[in-house]
Amino acid sequence: KSGFLVRKVHADPDGKRTPRGKRGWKSFYAMLKGLVLYLQKDEYRAERDLTEEDVKNAVSIHHSLAMRAADYSKRPNVFYLRTADWRVFLFQAPNAEQMQSWITRINVV
Ligand code: I3P
Question: What is the Å distance from ligand 1's center to 26 Cα?
Fold first, then answer.
């Protein structure tokens, strides 16, 4: 699965609140491959090698949990991703259907 997602980092490993200045929303082209959610800064280019930054932004979704961010009302179609190492991301999908599709795909693996 792939598509555009806007990401906000809410908590760093061990659930520590991400500091001010690193909490802004950023747009990525997201690709779910196996147990890794790749977040590419530029829009998708077919055979491109992953850059150092792409690797840094990639998230392991092994033992992670995605759920609709019912308590977050500043933007629509936002879901939480909590990783095994207790990081927390918010992701905004382009529409409700895409949001649900990402949640289902992340939780099924
Ligand atoms: C953050 C940015 C986010 C905002 C966050 C700010 O600033 O303005 O959009 O979250 O508020 O800290 P920065 O880019 O300097 O990190 P919201 O859009 O959800 O308000 P927060 O610290 O209350 O999460």
Answer: 11
Rounded percentage of the chain residues whose pLDDT exceeds 90: 84
Report residue 59's pLDDT band, with 50, 70 and 90 as the boundaries: very high
**pTM of the model as a whole:** 0.95
Centre of ligand 1 from the C-alpha of residue 100, in Å? 24
Pocket of ligand 1 (CB under 6 A): 20-25, 74
Tokens 């998708």 found at: 44
- pLDDT digit string, tens, across residues 70-96: 999 999 999 999 999 999 999 999 999
Interface confidence (ipTM) of the complex: 0.97
Contact 91, 78 (CB under 8 A): yes
- Using the 8-state DSSP alphabet, how is residue 55 labeled? H
- Separation of 24 CA from ligand 1 center, angstroms? 5
> Of 23, 71, 77, which is best to mutate to test ligand 1, by the most ligand atoms within 8 angstroms of its C-beta?
23
CA distances from 70 to 5, 25, 48 (A): 18, 18, 36
